[in-house]
Specification:
The complex is a heterodimer. By secondary structure, chain A is of the alpha/beta class. In chain A, the strands form 3 sheets. In chain A, strands 4-3-7-1-2-6-5 form a 7-stranded antiparallel β-sheet. Chain A has a 7-stranded mixed β-sheet with strand order 11-10-9-8-12-13-16, sandwiched between helices. In chain A, strands 15-14-17 form a 3-stranded antiparallel β-sheet, with no helix packed on it. In chain A, β1 and β2 form a beta hairpin. Chain B has a single domain, classed as Aldolase class I (TIM Barrel), CATH 3.20.20. In chain B, β7, α2 and β8 form a beta-alpha-beta unit. Helices cover 31% and strands 21% of the residues of chain B. The longest helix of chain B has 15 residues. Chain B starts with 10 loop residues before the first strand and ends in a 15-residue tail after the last helix. Chain B is an alpha/beta fold. The chains are: A alpha/beta, B alpha/beta. The interface between A and B is medium-sized, with 28 and 34 residues.
Chain lengths: 255, 307
């Protein structure tokens, strides 16, 4: 879908962290792990759309949490209530596509703004009364995505500087709680995925599904820019993060 | 788009008649099907699909794309599914549209180009666009653009095995473009499309590294439009075969500029990433321009520049 949405609110929620709520005018039926591709500027600076994980979606509303990094996100942070934003989406696959339906313990791990994507899954699981362990990692308290909402869902926290929750990484918290046969859903930076994999490998039969981020051109699978090297049999092939992902089995990914 | 009785938007690329002059540039429109949801694929003159090779191609390492001021640099490395998979999995699904499908083709040797064209002969593919100008692959691509013997070999061979129009896609990255254009015309090309991307680079100063893995890539988007326009104008003075203008065309105004400069048709590239229906909007916008200016036949716009 391509939708001309209206900004309901665009609020600063932490250091360089913003939360944007859009009114899509109709139900967009997003699933946890999916993203929207936002056209931020009427001018050609920035030229391309910017992809954002969906933080929450209900009825005709869709929310994202973003960090101001470059000119695109800076421009986005200056947008006001009532402004119109064109987005494409929901795009990409969902964590739910990888839910086996088994009784495996579920662990959710969000790192940095990647926590936004995992929150949507946590909220979904809670509504279905499915139990899960929830960990969020960030540099510091002020960069923790939506602290209050996460707390409500029983999230454990880890910060690099110890300003909230455990001092250290989300993967350190994982060490203490991970059980055999678990299934982990995660979104965040690649070094965090590596650390999670290292912990997962100390247990038996743990599956890790991670939502990746790569530089996208189109967001709909046409340009083949945002690829990841994926193992297929004895060889590897480049698969598109926007269309074949963003969520992949971490065992299949060369990174 | 309904053809208005009073307005003729048809143009010809060799023996191929297009209902309007707007096409999609190879590499920016996938295999067409990716855009079904976002636009009416029947509204444009032709769909040019991602460059096809004899066998599937894996493509370059990442990062493959980076944004620059009013443009993007890409070095995808021609990742594609190969001709066989295209004919089996993609072309049948495109059949439900009335829009001609043009295959962009490339090879790593003269023989491979000819073989790909041969495999497309007798299929529903309406024309081939020969990519002798990709800046992002080690074999093929630019090396061929500079090699007159190879170009002659490719054109002779492709024309021998493929009976529908053959378009040569040219790069301004090697040598004087007018000379190359004239050479392609003399060697039997039915049409020329220009320009392919300009070689460019971007550096991450924190990491002291190029922003794309291939170091250099092809710059496209609004940033290159004035350069492309000048090349189209110059080449239009040098050859008689129809030209297809490419380079940063974002809307109908840009398209009309290219046509006035001498292009018979245009390709929309980077704009598809921003506005997935950019090509449809461009086709409609041209009709609007024609109505407003009381232009009955689109052909009268071609090369109409006063200078």
């Amino acid at each position: 879908m391509r939708i001309k949405s209206k900004i309901v609110s665009n609020t600063k929620i932490g250091s360089d962290l913003w939360r944007l709520k859009l009114d899509a005018g109709k139900s967009i039926k997003a699933r946890p792990g999916q993203f929207i591709n936002l056209l931020i500027s009427e001018s050609y600076q920035p030229l391309l759309r910017r992809p954002f994980s969906i933080y929450d979606a209900y009825g005709k509303y869709v929310e994202i949490v973003y960090k101001v990094i470059g000119c695109g996100t800076r421009l986005l942070s200056e947008k006001k209530k009532g402004d119109v934003l064109d987005f494409m989406g929901p795009l990409g696959n969902s964590y739910l596509d990888h839910m086996t339906g088994s009784k495996s313990p579920i662990v959710l791990i969000g790192g940095g703004t990647g926590a936004a994507s995992v929150f949507f899954l946590a909220k979904y699981l809670k509504s279905k009364k499915i139990k899960f362990t929830f960990i969020q990692g960030a540099k510091c308290r002020d960069q923790m995505v939506a602290r209050a909402e996460f707390k409500k869902l029983g999230c454990a926290f880890a910060t690099d500087d110890g300003s909230m929750g455990n001092k250290g990484f989300a993967s350190d918290v994982l060490k203490d709680v991970l059980k055999d046969d678990s299934i982990i859903f995660t979104c965040g930076p690649k070094p965090m995925f590596k650390a999670i994999k290292a912990v997962a490998d100390t247990k038996n039969f743990v599956k890790v599904f991670a939502s990746f981020e790569e530089y996208m051109g189109c967001g709909i699978g046409a340009c083949v820019s945002c690829v990841l090297e994926i193992k297929t049999g004895d060889t590897t092939e480049y698969k598109r993060v926007c269309k074949d992902g963003t969520i992949f089995d971490l065992n299949d990914v060369e990174f | 788009m309904k053809t208005n009785n009073k307005i003729n938007t048809k143009v010809n690329i060799g023996s191929l008649e297009l209902k309007n002059p707007v096409m999609t540039a190879s590499g920016t429109f996938g295999y067409g099907l990716e855009f079904e949801e976002y636009m009416d694929l029947n509204s444009i003159g032709a769909i040019i699909v991602k460059g096809l090779a004899i066998k599937p191609v894996k493509g370059n390492k990442t990062p493959r794309l980076v944004e620059t001021t009013a443009g993007i640099i890409n070095a995808i490395g021609l990742q594609n599914i190969g001709v066989d998979a295209f004919l089996k999995d993609k072309l049948p699904k495109l059949k439900k549209y009335k829009t001609p499908i043009i295959a962009n083709i490339y090879g790593t040797s003269v023989e491979e180009y000819i073989e790909v064209a041969h495999m497309l002969e007798g299929t529903d593919v309406a024309a081939v666009e020969v990519n002798i100008s990709c800046p992002n692959v080690k074999k093929g691509g630019l090396a061929f653009a500079a090699d007159r013997v190879a170009i002659k070999g490719i054109l002779d061979g492709v024309k021998r095995v493929y009976k529908k129009p053959v378009i040569m896609k040219l790069s301004p990255n090697v040598g004087p473009l007018e000379e190359l254009a004239r050479f392609c015309e003399d060697s039997g090309a039915d049409s020329l499309s220009l320009i392919n991307t300009l070689v460019g680079m971007k550096i991450d100063i924190e990491k002291k590294k190029p922003c794309i893995a291939n170091i250099y890539g092809g710059l496209s988007g609004p940033a290159i439009k004035p350069v492309a326009l000048a090349f189209v104008h110059k080449v239009s003075k040098a050859v008689k075969i129809p030209l297809i203008g490419i380079g940063g065309i974002m809307n109908w105004c840009d398209a009309v500029e290219f046509m006035m400069a001498g292009a018979t048709a245009v390709e929309i590239g980077t704009a598809n990433f921003r506005e997935p229906d950019a090509s449809e909007k461009t086709a409609k916008g041209i009709v609007g321009y024609m109505k407003k200016n009381n232009i009955k036949d689109i052909k009268t716009i071609i090369g109409s520049l006063n200078c």
